[in-house]
Task: inverse folding
């Protein structure tokens, strides 16, 4: 009975004093410190007294998605989870590695001094160029549903930018379908475009503020501008 009450966080009274005021939500004692998850921070303190102190004190376990891989940026990790097939982490890592290789080789072939060759910077800038700054939410007023422009959070904005890049590269490749091959078995089948080739092309276009993903963003902002008259309907939600 006492374990049940403690698990639910219920206060017990003994001699007029509370034995339990709140439930303990942290599994780590107070003397445990947070781990260092950034290689730049680790290299900065290496060789100092802080590094020696950090090596001697107890450390909490790192999150399951913490890694020292090349694409460890939070935005790149989210993008990798988005492009992977059926939550297959190994497949997503293979796609990202081939995507990095394609972007690097395409940029090196340009042979110009001012060309950016770091794939991480190119991917993040492409997402930054594609993400919207408004959000169309559905509001029902008098039985009629309106698409009302509203402010958007950073998390949703980056998600929409990554989703537009991924869907544009995935759905608009024009690869031959199996039903077409079955109906016309004698016709030659054109080669398929892989997802990393389509992603590298779309990301480089978005990096230069061109391409279909940027067109989706422009069309989305155009609809937001057209529906400005419905902005006051947000108060009815």
Result:
């Amino acid at each position: 009975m006492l374990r049940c009450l403690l698990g639910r966080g219920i206060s017990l009274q003994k001699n007029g004093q509370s034995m339990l005021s709140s439930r303990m939500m942290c599994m780590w004692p107070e003397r445990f410190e947070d781990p260092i998850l950034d290689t730049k921070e680790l290299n900065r303190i290496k060789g100092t007294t802080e590094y020696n102190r950090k090596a001697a004190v107890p450390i909490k376990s790192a999150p399951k998605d913490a890694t020292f891989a090349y694409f460890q940026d939070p935005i790149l990790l989210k993008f990798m989870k988005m492009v992977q097939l059926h939550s297959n982490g190994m497949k997503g890592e293979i796609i990202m590695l081939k995507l990095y290789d394609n972007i690097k080789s395409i940029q090196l072939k340009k042979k110009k001094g001012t060309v950016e060759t770091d794939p991480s910077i190119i991917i993040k800038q492409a997402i930054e160029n594609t993400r919207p700054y408004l959000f169309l939410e559905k509001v029902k007023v008098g039985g009629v549903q309106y698409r009302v422009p509203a402010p958007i959070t950073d998390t949703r904005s980056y998600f929409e930018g990554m989703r537009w890049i991924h869907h544009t590269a995935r759905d608009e490749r024009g690869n031959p379908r199996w039903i077409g091959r079955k109906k016309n078995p004698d016709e030659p089948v054109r080669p398929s475009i892989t997802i990393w080739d389509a992603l590298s092309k779309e990301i480089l276009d978005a990096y230069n503020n061109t391409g279909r993903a940027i067109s989706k963003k422009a069309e989305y902002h155009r609809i937001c501008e057209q529906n400005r008259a419905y902005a006051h309907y947000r108060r009815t939600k």
User: Anything to note?
Assistant: DSSP finds ten helices and four strands in the chain. Strands lie at 13-14, 17-18, 135-141, 144-150. The two ends are 45 Å apart (CA to CA).
